[in-house]
Amino acid sequence: MSIERIDTLLGQLSESWLDTLEERYPSKPRHPYRLSLGFRYKMWWVCQKADWYFTHENNTPFLDTWTYRHWTRRSVAVLLAAVLSVSVAIACVVQFFQMRREEYEKYSTIYYEKIADGFVPGEFVCYTLGYVPEGFELEQEVTIGEFHEEKYLNNKNNGNDLVVVFRQIRIDQATLDIDTEKVKPVEISLNKKQKAWYLGNATNKVVYWDNGEYFFSISGHLSKDELVNVANSITIK
User: Fold this and answer.
1) Nearest CA to 167 among 131, 220, 114?
2) Cα radius of gyration (the chain)
3) Rounded to 5 degrees, what angle do the CA atoms 124, 129, 131 make?
4) Nearest-CA neighbor of 219 among 232, 208, 234?
5) Is residue 64 left, alpha or beta, with left meaning phi > 0 and alpha meaning psi from -120 to 50?
6) pLDDT at 95
7) DSSP state of 1
8) How far is the CA of 161 from the CAs of 151, 152, 220, in angstroms?
9) Which of 59, 149, 219, 236 has the greatest CB tally within 10 Å of its CB?
């Protein structure tokens, strides 16, 4: 991966971290933190020792050498843990594929373009719906290689069958054709954090997104709110 790409990813990670800082560490928390006197004393003592070692770096008493090394090892361990945490965070935000949409006269094709090397597909893990609207029952389920589909049917609407289809495919193999003749996809958010797109045709509607490893889509004869509720519910099977 190029240095420029790493710089871009680090910038995205920093922006994301700053954007959620107030949410994660509110200035006025609902339940204010209460620290015991014992904890405050321990932290005060740790800070005092750290200041002392810093100012007497070259004059550490022989009898206190073990303590000095002990704290040094602790510091190294904490630093290593921090570096590993950042590395994991960077790995999580690395995008190996980027969603593309090619528009035609009456439809659009969704697919993924490879933008970075290093993607190693793991064992295919099937997802399923945690919530299904009332009246819908699982009619068909198919898993073939890196593709999984569940079809739910509701045949209690005066003989007109209502269908909901959930599809999952590995991101490097994903493609989807959608009817965009009179409407365009709109960006939405699932579970307040997952970016997704909604396409609201007159009859069959669809929500689609990816988690960096798999591409998901849910389509059917549902309202937008209900379709989003279904999308929010997906879980590992």
Assistant:
1) 220
2) 26
3) 165
4) 208
5) alpha
6) 79
7) -
8) 12, 10, 11
9) 219
When the pLDDT of each residue in the chain is averaged and rounded to a whole number, the result is 79
- Cα–Cα distance between 214 and 127 in angstroms, integer? 10
209 touches 190 (CB < 8 A): yes
Residue 66, both tokens: 């073990």
Handedness of CA 141, 146, 147, 148 (dihedral sign): positive
Is the model's pLDDT at 113 over the cut of 90? Answer: yes
Taking CA atoms, 195 is separated from 67, 191, 208, in Å, by 50, 9, 9
Write down the pTM of the prediction. Answer: 0.62
Write out the DSSP string of 92-144: HH--SEEEEEEE-SSEEEEEEEE-SS---------EE-S---TT-EEEEEEEE
Structure tokens that stand for 29 in this block: 């928390």
Q: Regarding beta strands 214-220 and 205-210, do their DSSP bridges make them parallel or antiparallel, or are they unpaired?
A: antiparallel
Residues in the chain: 237
Task: Please give the average per-residue pLDDT across 125-131, as a whole number.
Answer: 96
pLDDT of residue 56 exceeding 70, the answer is: no
The candidate with the shortest Cα–Cα distance to 178, out of 137, 215, 141, 125, is 215
Cβ(164)–Cβ(152) below 8 Å: yes
Query: Which residues touch 152 (CB under 8 Å, ≥6 apart)?
Result: 129, 132, 136, 137, 138, 139, 163, 164, 165, 166, 220
Residue type at 70?
H
What sign has the CA pseudo-torsion 36, 39, 41, 47?
negative
Mean pLDDT of 36-45: 75
Spatial contact of 93 and 6, defined as CB atoms under 8 Å apart: no
